[in-house]
Structure formats: structure tokens, C-alpha cells
Amino acid sequence: MAIFYLFVFGVYLYYCKSKYFPAGIYKFPASWSSWLGLALFATGTALYVSSEGWASGMLLALCAVTVALMLIQFAAILGKWYFYGLVILTHGLALIDLVS
User: Fold this and answer.
1) What's this model's pTM, rounded to 2 decimal places?
2) How far is 5 from 86, CA to CA, in rounded Å?
3) Which one, of 24, 62, 1, lies nearest residue 54 by Cα?
4) Would residue 53 be called left, alpha or beta, if left means φ above 0 and alpha means ψ between -120 and 50 degrees?
5) How far is it, in rounded angstroms, from Cα 7 to Cα 52?
6) In this structure, are residues 76 and 83 in contact, taking their beta carbons and an 8 Å threshold?
7) Structure confidence by residue, pLDDT tens digits, 41-98
8) CA atoms of 6 and 55, how far apart (whole Å)
9) Angle between helices 80-99 and 2-15 (to 10 degrees)
10) What is the rounded distance in angstroms from the CA atom of residue 79 to the CA atom of residue 61?
């Protein structure tokens, strides 16, 4: 879950620079946030590859980035409360994973 958290945060940073990002949701103000998002993608992919092997790790990274893109975009167009609910859920699941 911690690796998936990197992908979700990276997708948010990358997607907030898009012209399709909803206006009512907080945007990360830095101009370099898309580069940080790509760095988080690369870090998550490297962690998946190191833990699962190169083929399985690349497939898991592809699935994780696809799910993260779908979740962020879907929750963002539904509205501010759904998006913030997704953020709270993601943080909660990451904390549960770190504790257990």
C-alpha cells in the first residue's frame, strides 16, 4: 500500500497541472510538481521491480498507475467532498499498512 500511495500522490501532482483539473479542488502551487510526480512514479516502479522482479514489478506498476489515474480523475470530477474522501481513505489505508 505504501508503494501505491506513491503512485496516488504522483498522479495528483501530475494531474493538478492539467487544464482539466477541477477548479474547486486544491492545486499544488509549485511549477515543478509534474516533475515530482514523475519522480514518484519512477520510485514506485523501482520499488515494485525490486520486490517482485522485473516482469511482475513492471506489470504491478502499470496496474497501480492505471488505478491511481482512474481514482484521482473520477473522484475529482465527482466533487470536492468525494476527492477529499479519497485522500482520507488513501492516507488511512497507508497508515494501517505501516502499523501492521
Assistant:
1) 0.83
2) 12
3) 62
4) left
5) 17
6) yes
7) 999 999 999 999 999 999 999 999 999 999 888 888 888 888 888 889 988 988 898 8
8) 20
9) 150
10) 27
